[in-house]
TrEMBL record:
<dbReference type="InterPro" id="IPR036390">
    <property type="entry name" value="WH_DNA-bd_sf"/>
</dbReference>
<dbReference type="GO" id="GO:0045892">
    <property type="term" value="P:negative regulation of DNA-templated transcription"/>
</dbReference>
<keyword id="KW-0238">DNA-binding</keyword>
<keyword id="KW-0805">Transcription regulation</keyword>
<dbReference type="InterPro" id="IPR011991">
    <property type="entry name" value="ArsR-like_HTH"/>
</dbReference>
<dbReference type="InterPro" id="IPR029016">
    <property type="entry name" value="GAF-like_dom_sf"/>
</dbReference>
<dbReference type="GO" id="GO:0003677">
    <property type="term" value="F:DNA binding"/>
</dbReference>
<dbReference type="Pfam" id="PF01614">
    <property type="entry name" value="IclR_C"/>
</dbReference>
<protein>
    <submittedName>
        <fullName>IclR family transcriptional regulator</fullName>
    </submittedName>
</protein>
<feature type="domain" description="IclR-ED">
    <location>
        <begin position="68"/>
        <end position="213"/>
    </location>
</feature>
<dbReference type="Pfam" id="PF09339">
    <property type="entry name" value="HTH_IclR"/>
</dbReference>
<keyword id="KW-0804">Transcription</keyword>
<dbReference type="InterPro" id="IPR014757">
    <property type="entry name" value="Tscrpt_reg_IclR_C"/>
</dbReference>
<feature type="domain" description="HTH iclR-type">
    <location>
        <begin position="6"/>
        <end position="67"/>
    </location>
</feature>
<dbReference type="InterPro" id="IPR050707">
    <property type="entry name" value="HTH_MetabolicPath_Reg"/>
</dbReference>
<dbReference type="GO" id="GO:0003700">
    <property type="term" value="F:DNA-binding transcription factor activity"/>
</dbReference>
<dbReference type="InterPro" id="IPR005471">
    <property type="entry name" value="Tscrpt_reg_IclR_N"/>
</dbReference>
Length: 213
């Protein structure tokens, strides 16, 4: 801690991080031990965070992340979209297909940024805000594949006709971006994805990940 920082705020943020890293919540005693402070301090931190809906406590007294964190998280989408746009524009123009950045939102895949190519006679219309199950479409399947086999060098996922008849997709997961789970991909009107598209999508996903770090 330096003279310019707030010890109370630092402790509150550490509480949120600890709760975010557990699925079953933490008790006051557990938080006290992890933070190295007495229980009275933890009670005060939790009361303040609960007042802002950033944490909630169940009937057993275990603290968990609250819905207020989700409201804050929604404001991240515009920042992520802005950072991803240069790589998406390059991808869309290079491939001649609609490029998109998709993030996890609960059990669904949510397109938060979409760029359509400027030079093609026709392309798939795909809009920001489009949702679909994670287990359908290249964007969601790429994310699920990264969950099952997390690796430093991602591969890519190809699909055909899962979200729109006659459309094929290719997507690669974002790797190494703390707090962001998503993928970058393209969707095109084709029976099959050309061979060069997969590696190009992986490169674009890497560019977006670097922009978000």
């Amino acid at each position: 801690m330096t003279a310019e920082t707030s010890q109370t705020l630092d402790r509150g943020l550490r509480v949120l991080k600890l709760l975010a890293d557990t699925d079953h919540g933490l008790t006051v005693t557990e938080l006290s031990n992890k933070l190295g402070v007495n229980r009275t301090v933890v009670y005060r931190l939790l009361a303040t965070l609960e007042q802002h809906a950033l944490i909630r406590r169940d009937l057993g007294g275990r603290a968990r992340v609250g819905l207020g964190v989700l409201r804050l998280g929604r404001q991240v989408h515009p920042l992520v979209r802005e950072a991803a746009l240069p790589a998406l524009r390059s991808l869309a123009e290079d491939i001649g297909a609609t490029a998109h950045l998709t993030l996890v939102d609960g059990a669904e895949a949510l397109a938060v940024a979409v760029v359509e190519p400027t030079w093609t006679d026709y392309h798939v219309a795909y809009r920001a805000g489009f949702r679909h199950p994670l287990d359908r479409g290249a964007a969601g399947r790429a994310i699920l594949a990264a969950r099952r086999q997390p690796v430093d060098e991602p591969g890519y996922t190809l699909t055909h006709g899962e979200l729109e008849a006659g459309a094929s997709g290719a997507a690669a997961p974002l790797i190494g971006v703390t707090g962001v789970e998503g993928s970058v991909g393209v969707v095109m009107l084709a029976d099959a994805v050309p061979e060069r598209v997969g590696p190009r999508v992986v490169d674009a996903a890497r560019e977006v990940a670097e922009a978000l770090r």
